[in-house]
Design goal:
Oligomer: single chain
Largest sheet: 2 strands, parallel
Low-confidence stretches: none
Structural class: mainly alpha
Length: 243
């Protein structure tokens, strides 16, 4: 048990995504801040590490009923999955949520002024995520796929314009942190996505969609921060890079 306390939160979730539910229950960020150890998190949040690990191990050792082992996937497949599943999800849902939030501000803003700040935050998120995903799709992901292809063919890897894969990864992780902070504020303003008693159907649907959006974003960031990015850094070390 003591050795597990020095293991990072992200590595637990990378090995078995079902453990994410345990960390979420304790309000532990497993995606943007998944590089912290159990000891670090428990000391900062005043959590009993032994009880937390018991809960995590109970889930990890239970029968796996079809949970996907993303940690075993080749990196090119994982990059494709993130783009086709999570990037497309963000694109589709932002197009629905933006007009819904605008409508809520117009109809309910007088009685619920926090809606204006929620709307402002989500507009910012939609814009930043759109740019962020394009950088991944046009720059980072193609290089990751090129590394996989080059390794499979024993070729030589030419140096990319950004120098080393760690550079765009550092930028992406910083942008992930920004989105994590943005959604923490949205969750607080919405009382963890709990609609008020006078909420209409659109109000309730919008809050439910925001909650789902945050959950998808957490998984999206986890797959990159805790699996794709660190493995890409390791993979790059296998090559002799030429200019």
């Amino acid at each position: 048990m003591e050795n597990l306390k020095n293991k990072t939160i992200g590595s637990f979730v990378a090995e078995d995504f079902r453990t994410a539910a345990v960390f979420s229950k304790y309000k532990i960020d497993f995606c943007c801040k998944g590089n912290r150890t159990v000891t670090e998190v428990c000391e900062k949040q005043n959590i009993d590490a032994d009880i937390l690990l018991e809960n995590v191990l109970q889930v990890a050792q239970s029968e796996n009923n079809g949970s996907i082992d993303f940690n075993s996937w080749p990196l090119d497949l994982l990059a494709d999955y993130i783009e086709k599943t999570h990037h497309r999800y963000v694109e589709e849902k932002t197009n629905v949520l933006l007009p819904f939030l605008d409508k809520l501000c117009k109809v309910h803003g007088a009685n619920h002024p926090e809606l204006f700040r929620i709307n402002e935050l989500f507009i910012g998120s939609a814009g930043e995520l759109a740019q962020h995903m394009k950088k991944e799709e046009l720059v980072l992901f193609p290089f990751v796929k090129r590394m996989v292809k080059t390794k499979d063919s024993d070729g030589i890897l030419s140096q990319p314009a950004f120098g080393t894969v760690s550079n765009p990864i550092a930028m992406m992780m910083n942008e992930h942190d920004n989105e994590g902070e943005r959604f923490r504020e949205i969750a607080e303003l919405t009382n963890n996505y709990t609609p008020p008693v006078d909420a209409c159907t659109t109000y309730r649907v919008t809050f439910a969609m925001l909650k789902e959006f945050e959950a998808d974003l957490h998984k999206h960031i986890h797959l990159e921060n805790n699996i794709l990015f660190p493995k890409a850094v390791v993979l790059e070390k296998d090559f002799v890079v030429v200019e």
